[in-house]
């Protein structure tokens, strides 16, 4: 019993160290705050992969609107519906990007809990491969740039223009103008060790 408690305390201490290091990279003023727009990058650098909706919920959880002169984060109750309605145009979250700062003291316990519970784990390699294979109905082992853009901007949780450009720059082979998805998957899978 004591061994298990010691292991958990060690894990918590390690998580706190990793969270602090990741947070400090974006704490440009060295005042234990980061711009709310950097939280997604911090969370992803810690090996978590929340969706944009989950990330928005996390920001709302750790953000104290209007405190200490910080601008309010306006999150309409129908934000998810607005994003879906505007999927063919720029996403609502980009149009109304939150402003303000998040304090380390608020972020640390929430992020520690996320890491302890292993929430927002990356999708396993075999699941990603199966997803690409579903899209590749001809079983060629690749998708063309146009096919990829269509799937990523018109289906499910659509990518923004910026996200699409970022993915294309990493995924598309300029010579063939396509994505060999097995190579792409092996490049983007996170080693959890």
From TrEMBL:
InterPro entries: EF-hand-dom_pair, EF_hand_dom
One Gene Ontology MF term: calcium ion binding
Gene3D superfamilies (alphabetical): EF-hand (1.10.238.10)
One GO term describing the cellular component: sperm principal piece
Listed name of the protein: Dynein regulatory complex protein 8 isoform X1
PROSITE patterns for the chain: EF_HAND_2
Domain EF-hand: 14-49, 123-158
SUPFAM superfamilies: EF-hand
């Amino acid at each position: 019993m004591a061994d298990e408690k010691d292991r958990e305390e060690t894990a918590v201490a390690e998580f706190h160290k990793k969270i602090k290091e990741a947070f400090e990279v974006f704490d440009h003023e060295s005042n234990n705050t980061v711009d709310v727009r950097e939280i997604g990058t911090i969370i992803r650098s810690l090996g978590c992969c929340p969706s944009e909706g989950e990330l928005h919920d996390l920001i709302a959880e750790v953000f104290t609107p209007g405190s200490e002169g910080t601008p309010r984060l306006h999150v309409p109750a129908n934000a998810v519906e607005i994003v879906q309605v505007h999927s063919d145009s720029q996403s609502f979250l980009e149009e109304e990007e939150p402003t303000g700062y998040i304090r380390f003291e608020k972020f640390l316990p929430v992020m520690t809990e996320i890491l302890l519970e292993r929430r927002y784990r990356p999708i396993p390699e075999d699941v990603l491969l199966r997803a690409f294979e579903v899209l590749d109905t001809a079983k060629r082992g690749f998708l063309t740039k146009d096919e990829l853009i269509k799937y990523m901007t018109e289906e499910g949780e659509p990518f923004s223009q910026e996200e699409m450009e970022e993915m294309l720059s990493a995924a598309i082979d300029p010579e063939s103008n396509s994505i060999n998805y097995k190579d792409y998957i092996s490049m983007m899978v996170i080693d959890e060790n």
